Known about the structure:
Layout: H1 2-18, H2 22-35, H3 40-60, H4 81-86, H5 88-91, E1 102-106, E2 114-118, H6 120-135, E3 144-149, H7 159-165, E4 167-171, H8 177-188, E5 194-198, H9 200-213, E6 222-228, H10 234-244, E7 248-254, E8 258-262, E9 271-273, E10 278-283, E11 297-303, E12 314-323, E13 326-336, E14 341-342, E15 348-349, H11 351-358, E16 365-372, E17 377-384, H12 391-402, E18 407-412, E19 427-429
Parallel strand pairs: 3-4, 3-5, 5-6, 6-7, 16-19, 17-18
Antiparallel strand pairs: 1-2, 7-8, 8-9, 9-13, 10-11, 11-12, 12-13, 14-15, 16-17
Helix pairs in contact: 2-3, 2-6, 9-10, 11-12
Amino acid sequence: MAVMNALRRKMFWYMDTLKGSPIKDYYQEIGGIQDTPLDSESIKAKEKNLKKLLNHTVSSTSFYKDFWEYRSLHDFPVINKKMIQDNFELFKSDKFKIDTLFKVSTSGSTGVPFKLYHNKDKRRRNTADVLFFSEKSGYSIGNLLFELEVWRGHNKRRKIKNLLQNTVQFDISKLTDDRIEHFLGLLENSDQPKSILGFPSALEQICNYINTNGVEPRIKNLNGVIANSEYLNDYTRNAVENLLGGPIYSRYSSEELGIIAHQTKSSGKDFEINWASYFVEILDMDKDINAQEGQYGRLVITDLFNYSMPLIRYDTGDIAMFKEGNNRLLKTVEGRMMDMVYDTKGNLLSSYVVYTKFYPFYDLLNQYQFIQIGQKEYHIKLNLKGEFNFKNELVESVKRDFGEDAKISIELVDGIPPLSSGKRKKVVNEYKKS
């Protein structure tokens, strides 16, 4: 099998060579900038990419035509999804024909429904980003990759393509005990080097099944697990590493952009920012100025490689914080602003605070969801494995961080359905819905 995996690697790069090695060239550039970010050549390469993008943007898009006298990136306005959708044609570059582009859409399950276009070179850059950061998380082209997601007609690959790529698209839309057993069987029956890519909520459900049923998985050569699209909490991190036997890394990415930041072997729980492909800013919650050091702010991204619909200073709607003293690392990415929660005095709280409230009861829970429904009102949904005699303790724990005047209701439910994307939202803010 090792020979077959090596052959897959060689085939991938051979096909790239036939096309002029665009992915390899990007891959090498990304490595140079990411691995030696303060090197003069890395700085020059990044500045060159930014200037090239801005010059292209002001000369080929109607929205930005009046900014041709710009002096720096900060002369451009901060934009968001609604602005793009309301002025869609104005953001499109006149240098591309529509039939040469790739449409990218998000379902809107976590915000505003959104679409835009990528040019071919942007797609290649995204591929190079995935290869670079996946390798820093234990995966190599050709090795076995299990992809845990909701697979339907629009994203499911043909069997022959999965065979050639050595990938398994494992559907998690109905992650029953039987399905979990099947997945664990697939892992145990393969001796070849392997990685897992999937939603943290699915990984957590698998680990809960293992704990509850006293299963002892015998998994060989699990090089790494990449958690994407959702927040990776400490319980799931520790459970995956202890029960499945592989290190786990969180990936922060989006459909419209690509990989923005990634935990790696060297970054620990911090996120290495993809400075090679994006310019990243963290701005104040209310004003378009830099957030204070050590404070949460709005995550604003300039995509250096989407020339078909340039995104300059694009407000992602997410919240993040730089690591103090090192703006090449994110200390945390908190997810959608619309799903951040606040205490009874209006202070923003990290979603991490919410997750810690449920850690002591994980053995008793199948699922939970925490919803802020008013300034001082919070609703908790619990899907239990059996009896739960700790409602008072849970309420008191929440009040300690959210305020003694918090009004907390608890509802016992048979299940908490996932979104159409397969994601499970554990923290929801109905009070400040945007």
